[in-house]
Amino acid sequence: MRLIDTTTLELKSFWDPDQPYVILSYTWGPDGEEVTFQEPSRGPSYITDATRSKPGFRKIVKTYERARTQYSLPYAWIDTCFIDKMNSVELGEAINSMYR
After folding, report:
1. Among 18, 44, 60, 83, which residue has the least CB neighbours within 10 Å?
2. Digit-coded pLDDT (tens) for 4-25
3. pLDDT of residue 96
4. 3 state DSSP class of 9
5. How far apart are CA 28 and CA 25, in angstroms?
6. Alpha-carbon span 84 to 36, nearest angstrom
7. Rounded Cα distance, 6 and 74, in Å
8. Where in the chain are the domains?
9. Sequence-ordered alpha helix ranges (H) in the chain
10. CA dihedral 5, 9, 14, 18 (to 10 degrees)
11. Distance between CA atoms of residues 88 and 75, nearest Å
């Protein structure tokens, strides 16, 4: 499972299904307004000003802040960042798993 560290914005992989994390899932905005899988996957130093200016980025930052302050959770999973919409198999699996 891939999660984002809510302090460093680094992408981390976990094999432990009991790793605690907060989930953000919401109605996706128009193309270009959301942060995509490709943007955070290279690491925090690759997050550009263009990414930071997207409305979806502000939602993500608020999720990180709430995860740390309200829930004391160091990691987050965010559907727009972790579902690769360019990969039709992964997208299909993710959508189907939402209805289980």
Report:
1. 18
2. 888 888 888 888 888 898 887 7
3. 73
4. coil
5. 9
6. 7
7. 5
8. 2-97
9. 49-52, 55-69, 79-82, 88-97
10. 30
11. 26
